[in-house]
Amino acid sequence: MSLTTPARGGRPVLDPARLAFLTAQEEQRFLADRPRSRALLERARAHMPGGVPMGWMTAMHGHAPIFAAEGDGAWFTDIDGHRYLDMNQADLSMNVGFGPPAVVAAVADRMRRGSQFMLPTEDAVWCAEALAERWDLPYWQFTLSASGANAEIIRLARHASGRDKILMFDGKYHGHIEDSLVIMADGKVKPELHGLTPDHAAHARMVPFNDLNAVERALKPRDVALCIVEPALTNVGVVLPDEGFHAGLRELTGHYGTFLALDETHTQIASPGGLKQLWQLEADAVGLGKTIGGGVPIGAYGLSEVLAQPLKTPPSMPGAPMESVGGVATGGTLYGNALSLAACRAALSQVLTPQGFARTAALGTQLADGLAGLFAAASLDWQVHRLTSRSGFTFADHLPRNAAEARALAQPALYRLLRLWMANREVWESVATAGPTVSFAMAEAEVAFYLERMRDFLADIL
């Protein structure tokens, strides 16, 4: 392979002509080997825009979507019969693996006995108690996604504080809700996507991750209701906090009267109580989703006594019509349903155990050490992320400290080649904004299989 050194960052990259050639070669093989997926996609376009039931399915992978048939443990199979080791796990919503027996049994039993009542079940009590112990927050509520959980945390913080501004960090992802779908562009906070009004952006502030001086400037007007943060950024690869960052953030939010929420949607895979427990972090609220449902849609959020008070004693809304449920704007018809809570209980008690987390963390170390060894053997200076069971790498000799650095170090075209190459050789690689993750269904053999494929990939391109 010819290595060139571009001006940006002085980082060696694959020669553009060879990169284009290899990508075209892999894409041609990818499409040719999946005729049933291609045919079904064409059929689907008649009644689903883009041929998919949700737009992300065409946007996230950098190639045409495939149609899944079934999954088993750490692997899934498409309708053309290709089997894949799943390193993406549906953006961690399937981190427990496909078809964990305890969850399958609990869901089947709950379906037979009724899946939804708009009434609490004993499983809800059990799950709330378990989450309270793990995340050290006394009160819990349930939604259908982490997006819903974060939306309700924001509303409760606004009510309790009497303020309207929200502080977030560049590179975040806190769900598909208006309040968090904002970005920094040209020095201003703007809507992230079409279809959003500027109004929500006007109530948001954004600062770089790991920049406590910027945090203090944003909080000084004392109009910020909530600061919401991922303990480590996970939507631009992995960006770890500087030593003392979270302690400083807690101190500043407390000083300026701002509530602090941890979005552990992705980082909950680090320990039974996420990074909050592992790093002994303090917060007024925690948002969860994905993994704790064992593959069934769920969201959950934990609250301090102060933030839970409006739910314990709902405030009245003078002039509200009789059909209004009153109180702070929370809830939904399917929120806290019996099926989701049965799955959550089974996942927490049988899969997401302390022993399970210790095992996936050890496998994550095996993965990270293996990647580092492969890069060194290939004379590449790429650096490896380490976040217990989640790994990944940066195409540079240093790890980023914030989202801007992560974007500058990214090589999307090279990562697209990697995904296609891996898919053609039985690995469903993580999306470019994430990083390969060990699931609870994996063992040493799966990690070794992935590392073998990465070794072969490097040999092929080099």
TrEMBL record:
NCBIfam families: PRK07046.1 (NF005453)
UniProt source species: Hypericibacter adhaerens
Molecular function, one GO term: pyridoxal phosphate binding
Gene3D superfamilies: Aspartate Aminotransferase, domain 1, Type I PLP-dependent aspartate aminotransferase-like (Major domain)
Record flagged with keyword Transferase: yes
PANTHER family xrefs: GLUTAMATE-1-SEMIALDEHYDE 2,1-AMINOMUTASE (PTHR43713), GLUTAMATE-1-SEMIALDEHYDE 2,1-AMINOMUTASE 1, CHLOROPLASTIC-RELATED (PTHR43713:SF3)
InterPro entries reported in the protein's UniProt record: Aminotrans_3, PyrdxlP-dep_Trfase, PyrdxlP-dep_Trfase_major, PyrdxlP-dep_Trfase_small
Top-level taxon: Bacteria
Keyword field contains Protein biosynthesis: no
The protein's name: Aspartate aminotransferase family protein
Pfam families: Aminotran_3
Family that this chain belongs to: Belongs to the class-III pyridoxal-phosphate-dependent aminotransferase family.
Cofactors: pyridoxal 5'-phosphate
Keywords: Aminotransferase, Pyridoxal phosphate, Transferase
